[in-house]
């Protein structure tokens, strides 16, 4: 080989040369160009890439270098990065090891010198084998010292109180006695107690001085460490942004070459397979906002009752009216809190067992397939069914209670939009998969006494899986939805596309709203920590007035400067005039601002003209409830979710609470749950085949004709909605009456 010459140090302690790097089991070791400089080991595919594309870099200051055999060695920084390398000969390997050890020692020395030399509590940076564990141990040790000092202060405080009280009593007694024989004894007693008080006070002062000195020393160090972390983060963000731009340019150039030379394009794709990132992110290029908001002109806060040019009659009312509208929108009375609680709900479930199972070992054969047809062990589930997850949409039912009281349809739209967004707040840490409901399975959520509503869900179809949901409130609203989930495994992430419609009807105003859900994506299926994102657009339509709200769920981008999980929206009337702007995040809170005036702004990115809205001060519309204590060990369930699978005697025999595999999983008996889950799924398949045979016989069809499943839902029926023009399963009644009478003879035996 022309590059077989062993590497040698160059100016600036830079070391360069060819090494073989392990990529994967298919390609094995691949030849890469490595560069060692300033304590950093970087690698490229070739010399030519050094100017623009670095394939990876590892910091030797925290790295561990291990020699495996005559030619192989491993460099690792504690698990985040590991390079398995092979030299062409033992001599070349030794040269690399020597250069790496020298570079590591220099990097550690430079890092130590950069710390504050005046800090007596300073420790060396973590070396191999210590990593983050040493840093954590140091913090724990410091906390123990602080705790000891606080106990000393507390003890001194108790002694001061004790001796001070005794001294006060002695002084009082001294004032009350007459000059005589007892005078000398009392004076000595007062002197002794005063001496004890002085000693205790001095101890308290010394303890305070020690604590203050300790706090100042550590505060100085921690502030410096925090600033260093901030600086490193800024540099990392800048580097990542630059790499993203380089990646985008290279991708565009690659596509251009691929279109002109398909053979070259295919080769390039294959060669890049071993350098893919562990995490799957969306396009780093930010999608420019469709509009921007600015504070409204002060004249809108002081103007008279006359209308302002360019505003509608509704928006052109005086400022007092606008403020009253926003006040009513931001804070409605919570009469539901005065309702009498019917029962005490549970606040805990058994902790999640720590069972390990490799998700990739199961999912690698499912790429591109519909996941609802693939049996999965309960290890990837949470102890709730999809029907119960659907019922969790009602966690923030108060938003619909407030919407029912609104006089303005535009204000009502804001509440409906907030309710729509709030249904995603429970998903941010919920990476567990809910149980697929069995056909005919139901779930009731009766909160009539506590919250004034009750709801019913039923699995109305199995392939494709579809669930119907009906909820009605004493506050004057009805919510109904039919959701069919379509999910596909894409290799590194799972896409879950909810199909179907959600409708909300208000009794008093007869306003009829409808909308659809956005796409849910579960990332890092192969490696890394699972995380969930919501992305897409939602259009909420008031079919009675023509009002609309367009919500945009921004996909997560690693390089975006925007707040993660951002949601923006605009509420418009029938004529398309904007009245409210919504902004916030789907996992924390939403705010709204009233629009006083709008205008066309300057061209933004890609030549798109953006609308500029002048708005009043934003007010909070919705905020997520805090999770209960210990939620991280209980599948990150909310307070409502903890109660959904709580056993209840009067529910239907088809209710999800009675599902045995789900109950076993909640109790931590996962092996038994897996066995029971397989039994239920096989029972469902037998019932379905029997139903198909009966359908064939009833139609007097030949045996080779297509089998039709003639299943009909028990509590719902399929209807055409004349208002929205959609077809969905609608509750036909009878369930709550059957519950009151305790007659469940019509329910199938599905468990």
Automatic annotation (TrEMBL):
GO annotations under biological process?
lipid transport
Q: Where is this region: Disordered?
A: 114-138, 251-277, 292-321, 647-681, 690-709
A single GO CC term for this protein reads:
cytosol
Please report the name of this protein according to its UniProt entry: Oxysterol-binding protein
PANTHER family annotated for this entry? Answer: OXYSTEROL-BINDING PROTEIN 1, OXYSTEROL-BINDING PROTEIN-RELATED
Keyword Flavoprotein in the entry? The reply is: no
Domain PH: residue ranges = 12-105
Localization, per the record, is: Membrane
Keywords of the record? Lipid transport, Lipid-binding, Membrane, Phosphoprotein, Transport
Query: Mainly localized where?
Result: membrane
Compositionally biased intervals (Basic and acidic residues): 655-681
Q: Locate the compositionally biased regions of type Polar residues.
A: 125-138, 305-321
Tell whether Aminoacyl-tRNA synthetase is among the UniProt keywords: no
Family to which this protein belongs: Belongs to the OSBP family.
User: What is this entry's stated membrane topology?
Assistant: Peripheral membrane protein
A Pfam family annotated for this UniProt entry? Oxysterol_BP
Question: One MF term from GO for this chain?
Answer: sterol binding
